[in-house]
Each structure stands twice: as structure tokens, then as C-alpha cells.
Amino acid sequence: MRQPHLVAFATIALTLLVTACHSAKHLLPPNLRAPENTSAQLDGAKKALQDAIPCCTSFADFSYQAQLPWRPKRFELGPGSSVFSLNGQRSYFLSFRLPTDGKLPYRVGMKSELNGRWLRTSYLFGPTVVLLDEAFQPLGDQKDINLCEHVGWSSATTGAFGSYEVKDPKARYIVVFSSAAQQAGNTYWEQSPAAFSAESPVSMNPSGSFKIPHGPDGVLWVGMMDKDYASAVDNAVCGKPPAGDGLLNTLRNALPIPLWTDNSAGSSNAPGNASSSEASGSDSGGGK
């Protein structure tokens, strides 16, 4: 008689548990919920750029009152920022006059911050650089900056880093924007999104790495290279490293200690093993 009651009780408990789990998803605060539309933020940023009214159609229209900062400085590019339309390209941009007392060549440091609450749905502003002469004419082709990931001990040394070398004595101005190729590109990222997303472990990335897409807006640090940025740029991860032979083989090649030599072929050079001739010579010597 008790069995039907137990079955009914179990059914009711299971129903309540499923309902509670479904409701709990909606009770979670936004920063703990899994992202539902992974491309909505990037699509919105692209639309905002296309809807913006350009201020300039040539490099001569830009303002160059600001000098390139003596160390990387934070700039936020997005709605409300200046937009240019030039040679079929549309982008937010920054323009600076170069320091007249800068000793050539020197490096310009850059860092792009992840734009988004979730790593899985984030994107980066991919910078492009062009140098101008005193007549606001380009000195050579524009340069898309290759971004590389670096995770440091602080937020100042964490992000996607890049650099550009100024070495032309005719250079007077620098413009930083994002070309069409950059906006369609991406940056290698070493860490799995599962470590940063509420979707874990459902959407774990087994490779532990993926690519962050580029977008039209975001936070960009730009300025003369300083020590911290130089270290981050020089030690950043730019792509998946090639597969090695293992730690032990690497140590054997780096530190060729006799103990690590291959004895599989019966090598007579291993420590503690005398050669047959030495052994026979010792025996014959002992018999004399």
C-alpha cells in the first residue's frame, strides 16, 4: 500500500526539482548567466560604425593637435568617436603628431583590451598604422599590427599587444585606425573560454586555445614604448607553438650529460661499464 505513495512522492519531487532548476537560470544575475547570442554585441558594433556620419574623407582633414603620448595611454574608440571614410574603408581613428625630439628609430607600443563580458563573445580592436609626412601624405603603405596575447601580473601587462617602429625621418604624423582586413581578422588566444564562461563545462574547448575576432571598436592603448610594454610585446604569445619532443629530450639536447646517453645499443661509454678490451686487459694483467 505504501509503494504507490512513494512513487507519487518521487514524481512530485522530480517535477519540483526540474522546475526549480529552470527557474534558477532566470534568477541568476546577468554576469553569471551564459551568453545566449555570441555575435549580438559584435554585430551591433558593426552596425553602429556603418550608421555613423564620417567627419573626414582625407588625412588632411584630421586634427593633429595631440602629440603621441610619451608612454601608452588609454583611448576608447566607439560611438561618439571620430569616424573617417577613405578608400572604401570606414573606421574610428586616432591621429597624433610625432615628437620632434624622438631619436630614430623608436617603437610605438599598443595594447587592445578584450571587449565583452564573456571571453567567448569578446572581440578586439585590431589597429592599423599609417605614417604621414608634413604634407599629410602617406609614407609607404598602411601597416596592420599583429596582436599577440600576454597575461602579466596586472591588468597593465595583460591584453593583446603589438608595436610599430618609426624609422623614416620624414614622418611627422601617425594615424591609428582599423582597416577592413583587420576588422575581418582575429587574434590567437591561448586560454580556453570554458575557464571564463558560465557555459563550462558544456562548451569546453578541448584544445585550450581559440581565436578572438576583431571588431570596429574597443579600448586601445597607444604611445611611445615603455619598459613594461616592451617586455609584454617581446614575450607575448602570437600563435600555437610547434609540438616538441618532450621535456626529457629537450633537457638531453640542452644538457648533454653522459648519464643521459642512449645505452640501448650496448654502448661502452656509459659510466660504470668497462669495455671488453679493458676487462680482458685487466684479467690478463692480474694473471701475470
List keywords for this structure.
single chain, 288 residues, alpha+beta, 5-stranded antiparallel sheet, 6 helices, 14 strands, globular
Structural description of this entry:
- The structure is a single chain.
- By secondary structure, the chain is of the alpha+beta class.
- The protein is 24% helix and 23% strand.
- The chain contains six helices and 14 strands.
- The protein has helices at residues 2-27, 40-51, 180-183, 227-234, 247-254, 276-287, and strands at 73-77, 83-86, 89-92, 94-97, 106-112, 124-125, 128-132, 143-144, 148-150, 159-166, 173-177, 186-189, 210-215, 218-224.
- The strands form four sheets. It has a five-stranded antiparallel β-sheet, covered by helices on one side. The protein has a four-stranded antiparallel β-sheet with strand order 4-11-7-8, with no helix packed on it. The chain has a three-stranded mixed β-sheet with strand order 6-13-12, covered by helices on one side.
- A hairpin with an 8-residue loop joins strand 9 and strand 10 (159-166).
- The longest helix has 26 residues, at 2-27.
- The protein is globular, with a radius of gyration of 30 Å.
- The relative contact order is 0.16.
- Residues 192-207 and 264-288 have low confidence and may be disordered.
For the termini, the CA-CA separation is: 103 Å
How many beta-strand elements?
14
The proportion of residues in beta strands is 15-25%
N-to-C order of helices and strands: HHEEEEEEEEEEEHEEEHHH
Radius of gyration: 30 Å
Write down the overall geometry. globular
Count of DSSP-assigned helices: 6
Helix content: 10-25%
Mean pLDDT: 78
Largest sheet: 5 strands, antiparallel
Low-confidence stretches: 192-207, 264-288
- SSE-based structural type: alpha+beta
Strand numbers in spatial order across the main sheet = 1-14-5-10-9
